[in-house]
Amino acid sequence: MVFAVEEINHSKTLLPGVKLGYHISDSCGPPLWALRAALSLVGGDSTSCNSAEPPDYSTEGIKERTGDRLVPLIIGGASTVEGQILSRILGPLSVPLISYLASCPCLNDRLQYPNFFRTIPSDIYQARAIAQLAIRFNWTWIGAVIANNDYGHVAIKVFQEETQGARVCLAFVETLDRENIVSDARRAALTIQASAARVILMFTWYTDVKELFMQLAKINVTDRQFLASEAWSTSGDLLQNVVTSKVASGVVGVAIRSSAMPGFENYLRNLNPIHHPDDEFLKEFWQAKFGCAPEATNLFSYSPSSFKSVTLTQMYGKGHPLNISASSPAKGSLQKASLPPCSGTESLEGVEHPFTDTSQLRVTYNVYLAVYAAAHALHRLLSCPDGDSSPRNNSSTCSYLKHFAPIELLQHLNNVNFTTPQGEMFYFQGADIPAKYDLVNWQKTLEGSQKLVLIGRVDGLDLHLNESAIQWSTGSNQVPISVCSKSCPPGTREANRKGEPLCCFDCIPCAAGEISNKTGSLHCERCPLEFWSNVERTACIPRQLDFLSFNEILGITLTTAAVFGTIVTTAVFMVFLCYRQTPMVRANNSELSFLLLLSLKLCFLCSLVFIGRPSVWSCRLQQAAFGISFVLCVSCLQVKTIVVLAAFRSARPGAEALIRWFGPGQQRGSVCLLTCIQIIICAIWLSLSPPVPQRDLGFQGSKVTLECAMASVVGFSLVLGYIGLLACTCLLLAFLARKLPDNFNEAKLITFSMLIFCAVWVAFVPAYVSSSGKYTVAVEIFAILASSYGLLFCIFAPKCFIILLRPEKNNKKHIMAR
Fold first, then answer.
1. What are phi and psi of 175, to 5 degrees?
2. Which residues lie across from 464 on neighbouring strands?
């Protein structure tokens, strides 16, 4: 802070003609002592840590100074509690408070803390940055150890909110209380040891982390990857600790951004108590470092009022950026009597000490920014209106110092916007500044110690990371794995386990027709209608065309049955042709018998049209051939039955003319008429709405059935209905003629054949409706073959048996016998 003030006082552009003053007071640790120090600074009083009197919180001293040119601005409040207390008390007085270390998001509330500013980002941003790291490296099962206060609880809440959509779960959350740090650290260490989480997030102070690492070392837990918050990621005490190096190698953390301040190292090395007799901190440091006592001087001879300027007041707390002990002289100073006087030649040039190490300026840089922010706000406040500046003083400030109130400085601080000497844009967003962090990694050196390595940065919500530069806890560049369940491979999906977090799941194979083509899929995607999943369920492949072909077993079986039926029918036809003059053939109306055999042969052959790849003409020919062939067959049977009935009825007196109406011409005409009706039905059906080849995409499977789709169900129903009408009529007539007196009554054979025929086709309807794909065609072929075989064997088998095996019965006497 002193360096920044002196740098500003020497600047020709910032506050020209104005010199800044400062006063440093020790906050002594407890927040109430910090408040007492702040009030004394604002009121112009002094205090010390070893004062036995209680702090006086009267604001009278402040009121008495409002008319003076001492307008205070406090740089301090190193903790959230201090920041809250100071801001609440100083808020009504409009005294600006700039903190360099209080990072709680709660301080963003401008209604409660209107005078609060800070040069460190809110903890929200570092929690978001660590959440992005977890998502980036696919760590879905993370343990957390946090401080049992706002710092820890707010950070872990933000972390969970940021990772909610990325399925990152917390395996456990352990809290550490500083009052019970040993027992809490031991409990947290045992939890870490028992957990499957290999990545541990820690939002707590470095002293608490040190105790936890000691407990982990006792139980030999050395294989965890730790994610560090800015509170301990750059702790030199932890980096150089031997126990820590065994437990926490490869730590990755978020750190307060570091920036160089040109001239600061030379400034530190040129410090000497001789030149700064009023600097108590430097005097104590000199005594500790060189073991001598500087010349006795009046350490408190300095007074801010000696400057004819506005006074900036800073309060330093524990762990201030320069790492100088801020204890009071009565408690912390060395006894002068036991130390020899210094020679005056002592110097910090060439001295290696944390005090002179400017390689990692983090909190220090925050203080530097705070001073510059205050100076620029004051510069804006002191700037003259247009035309009001002194012509002989080439400056932007007025030639006179205005009297102003603290609230005026506070208003200008809200709108401050400038470029730092390092070239960075600086401005406040409410109480905050734009979030900027460094990403650091603890890496082992060749000597076995650990060093801090910069591996990236955080700029707002953007994460810039050099992954190849990271040395993980494994000692290599291999990213640690920390998951509750391993990612599901392609072809499977994640299924949550009941009662467990989302990160714990089982891998379930995708169902048929569904795929997942990437690792860790939450759902399986259904393939398009014309595609189906492969065996691995990782890709959709085109569904194969499926139809009843001649090459498959079912097609070969049905083809064989149809060909065999055709051969048997042909054989029967040849037998009847050879024995056409015998009584057995002539007695059963040989002309209709030959026509019946021809129609049966057509029935067997028409079934072959149903087998093979459907085409436009095959679809039309199938149903037409089937309908006409069976109508021809049933018509022959019906006419034969009518002839039998007419023959026996004509034997009665007065019925001789009946047989004349059923002569050969009438029989042929009846068959043609009945068949023509079916031909007309088929012609109308096929001309208006014929069956067409169509892919059946509704069937879920790896194959697409190519079938003849019935565009008109009415047409198909009429064809079947007409066949059924003829079959039922024939069955009724045959049933009436079954007991006519004759040794060989063909009506009995027709009755049995039509019973089989009707039974087959009645069973066909539900089987046809319930079948799908090529099996629909197979059901229809089976019905055709079954009914054809039933007619063939029931009607012609007994006749062939007599003709071939019982020729002695093939005579008119036997046939006409009653």
1. -110, 145
2. 457
Instruction: Establish how many alpha carbons lie within 13 A of residue 596's alpha carbon, considering only the half-sphere containing its beta carbon.
Output: 28
Q: Using CA atoms, how far apart are residues 669 and 666, in angstroms rounded to an integer?
A: 5
Cβ atoms of 589 and 667 within 8 Å: the answer is yes
Cβ count near 794 (within 10 Å) = 19
User: Is the distance from CB of 222 to CB of 415 less than 8 angstroms?
Assistant: no
- What tokens does 320 get? 């201030």
Question: At CB < 8 A and 24+ separation, what contacts does 774-777 make?
Answer: 774/546, 774/547, 774/548, 774/554, 774/705, 774/707, 776/707, 777/547, 777/548, 777/610, 777/611, 777/707, 777/708
Give residue for tokens 């003409």. 617
Instruction: Say yes or no: domain 123-259+435-469 is CATH 3.40.50.2300.
Output: yes
Q: Are 711 and 691 in contact (CB under 8 A)?
A: yes
Options 3.90.180.10, 1.25.40.20, 1.20.1070.10, 1.10.10.60; CATH for 553-816 is 1.20.1070.10
Query: Scanning the structure block, which residue is given the tokens 């049955």?
Result: 561
Choices 3.40.50.720, 3.40.50.2300, 3.90.25.10, 3.60.20.10: CATH for 2-120+260-423: 3.40.50.2300
3-state helix, strand, coil in the chain (%, to 5): 45, 15, 40
Q: Locate tokens 């050099």: which residue?
A: 466
**Residues β-bridged to residue 695:** 706
Going by C-alpha positions, the residue among 533, 482, 478 that lies closest to residue 510 is 533
Q: Counting Cβ atoms within 10 Å, is residue 87 exposed (0-12), middle (13-18) or buried (19+)?
A: buried
Residue 5: helix, strand or coil by DSSP? helix
Interatomic CA distance for residues 522 and 500, integer angstroms: 16
Q: Which residues contact 701 (CB under 8 A, 6 or more apart)?
A: 512, 513, 532, 543
What does pTM read for this prediction?
0.66
DSSP 372: H
Residue 797: which residues within 8 A CB-CB, separation 6 or more? none
Q: Which residue has the tokens 């000696």?
A: 306
Token pair belonging to 197: 């989480």
Three-state SS at 183: helix
- Model pLDDT for residues 418-453, shown as the tens digit of each residue: 998 888 899 999 999 999 999 999 998 888 889 999
Instruction: List the alpha helices (DSSP H) in 15-121.
Output: 31-43, 60-64, 80-90
Residue type, 117: F
Q: Position 766: which residue type? A: P
pLDDT tens, position by position, 161-215:
999 888 899 999 999 998 999 999 999 999 999 999 999 999 999 999 999 999 9
